[in-house]
Amino acid sequence: MDQRARQYQQDVFIAEQVRNDQLQQLFRQSGSAVFGSYLAAVMLSWLCWGRFDHQVVGWWLGLLSASTLLRTSLFVRYFRSVQSERIPGRWEWQYWSTLASSAAIWGVGALAVMPPDDLLAQALVMLFAVGMSVSAVSCYSAYRHMTVMSILLVLLPSTVWLLLQDSTIQVGMALAALVFAFFVARATQKLSEALERAYRLSHEMERAHSISTYAAQTDELTGLKNRRAFFEHGHQLFTYCQHQRVPLCAVMLDMDHFKHINDTYGHQAGDEVLRQIGRVISGSLRATDIHGRLGGEEFAVLLPDTSLAQAQGIAEQLLRTIADLRPLPVYRITASLGVAEVEGSGQDLHKLINNADKALYRAKAQGRNQVVIAEPA
User: Is 218 part of any domain?
Assistant: First the structure.
């Protein structure tokens, strides 16, 4: 059940990411369509100026100007918004409404300016309407229903009118437009589905890469960084602290009498002890700290921007928290910890860890279940 729930959550997350990708592509690709539809109407009116009713053309271009300004303001608001606000639920319905109004104005306006007795002007109107439909495929390909809606709103008014005429040429133009719209709708469906699959596959690959990277850097038993990842991130942190002159301390932790736990209660009990230690370490430290399991029952922690006294306090708190654990069937567990700090620019990470390790073994030698500070060089 947990596995199915996690898979469902992953599918929902990927679906949201795909919608975000579709929205971003919509705004990136369709910017030219905002002005392209207006310029197409202007060019059509110029070509047929002597054939169109100038008053109707004026109303048509005026309404298109208003819808163009409205769509332009939408684009400006979108690209000025921060990335976290560019979510489909906020922008999709606004885009749908402005596109629908613009396409409807274009389609109805084209019918209004079309002379009822001029076949050449009618052919030019249909030619421009078909051109608008072609541009819709390239501009709104991420949203199949949006593409089909814009094509229908632009083509249908003039197409339906031509179908109702007596002339064979007019009916033929209408049928040609309908056939074109049908094939474009089919092509749009395949294109949008291909884009959606590509987006989904991209996010699934990113997630798989993230999971594999996490698995390669994580100790499976405790959830902490493994030895390789600890030193890889530790070197980066050490270099940063040296350049920024930020203090850095290391804490080495080793379970007391861990072999006795395995021999007495079994390795499953020992594994549970290690899991609980991992939870204590990861839950007690800051996000900027680096912690890992170096092997067996040995753990290491790097504490940036932390003085030696503060590191000692953190180590003692870890000691108390571990002593309070009761990982049944083990009645009581303890740990020994060693703390060291960077003592100059000539030191490296391995020297820092080695100093904390020496302090750890002094804690072992002095009776265990205690924190020991490394002796100054």
Answer: no
CB 270 within 8 A of CB 260: no
Residue written as token pair 């390795």? 267
State the amino acid at position 178 in one-letter form. Answer: L
Pairwise CA distance, residues 8 & 14, whole Å: 10
Q: Both 252 and 192 in a single domain?
A: no
d(CA 374, CA 352) in angstroms, rounded, equals 10
> How is residue 44 written in tokens?
């059509």
Give the SS3 label for residue 337. strand
70 and 122, same structural domain?
Answer: yes
Under a CB-based contact definition with an 8 Å cutoff, are residues 85 and 24 in contact? no
Residue type at position 57: V
Q: Please enumerate in sequence order all residues whose Cβ is within 8 A of that of 339, keeping only pairs 6 or more positions apart, or say none.
A: 249, 250, 251, 252, 308, 311, 312, 315, 356, 359, 371, 372, 373, 374
Domain match, 264 and 318 both: yes
SS3 sequence of 122-179: HHHHHHHHHHHHHHHHHHCCCCHHHHHHHHHHHHHHHHHHHHCCCCHHHHHHHHHHHH
Residue 255: what are its φ and ψ, rounded to 5°?
A: -70, 140
Residue 59's domain comprises 2-210
pLDDT tens digits, the chain, 377 residues: what are they?
456 766 777 777 778 888 888 888 888 888 888 888 899 999 999 999 999 999 999 999 999 999 999 999 999 999 999 988 888 888 999 999 999 999 999 999 999 999 998 999 999 999 999 888 878 877 887 888 888 899 899 999 999 999 999 899 999 999 999 998 888 878 887 878 888 888 888 877 888 777 777 778 889 899 899 999 999 999 999 999 999 889 999 999 999 999 999 989 899 999 999 999 999 999 989 989 999 999 899 999 999 999 999 999 999 999 999 999 888 888 889 999 999 999 776 678 999 999 999 999 999 999 999 999 998 76
The tally of domains found in the chain comes to: 2
Please report, for residues 221, 265, 324, the alpha-carbon distance to residue 331 in angstroms, rounded to integers and kept in the order given. 21, 10, 10
- Residue 345 has phi, psi (to 5 degrees) of -70, -20
Q: Verify that 342 and 246 share a domain, yes or no.
A: yes
Which of 210, 237, 272 terminates a domain? The answer is 210
